[in-house]
Amino acid sequence: MAAERLTGLAAVSQPDAQVLVLGSMPGAASLKQQQYYGHPRNLFWPILSELCGFSLEQSYPARLAALQQHRIALWDVLQHCERQGSLDSAIRNETPNDFNLFLQQHPKIRLIAFNGRKAEQSFRRLVLPSLPRDLPCELLCLPSTSPANASMSPASRLEIWFQLRDQLDNS
């Protein structure tokens, strides 16, 4: 089976966003649902519900609204790629999203947090060289919330992701 050319999801953001959480490219379940972190075993929503204080029972639009209320934007590094299956290790022929435009439209972003190493590596390789050298935000790599990241316990991931709380508390 050949790799499929994929297109990512649109950014979920408000102009006052201060934290941008970036994945690499949505997995097959997320693309099928057209929802970020749609795989039922992905820990993104359980972690963010703890961090932001919303119920996992809320609808997807309500969860997105809760992130926006906490000035968290959600996007992916890649606009397009080729991939067979959902694993980041299978991603090939990457095309990044337009971060120059995004950061111009979101001047209050002060932290870019990566949901896993692949997102960070792709950003540093494909995006960072085209951004202004005086990028006014911090870069932080967090452990992937993907079910494929089985080497780290959910509790350990939650503890590390709570670093975002410092950014939210200073809002």
Automatic annotation (TrEMBL):
The lineage of its organism: Bacteria, Pseudomonadati, Pseudomonadota, Gammaproteobacteria, Alkalimonas. Residues 10-165 form the Uracil-DNA glycosylase-like domain. NCBIfam families: hypoxanDNAglyco. The keyword Hydrolase applies. One of its GO terms (molecular function) is DNA-deoxyinosine glycosylase activity. This is DNA-deoxyinosine glycosylase. It comes from the Bacteria. It is an enzyme of class 3 (hydrolase). Keywords: Glycosidase, Hydrolase. It comes from Alkalimonas collagenimarina. InterPro entries: Hypoxan-DNA_Glyclase, Uracil-DNA_glycosylase-like, Uracil-DNA_glycosylase-like_sf. Its EC number is 3.2.2.15.
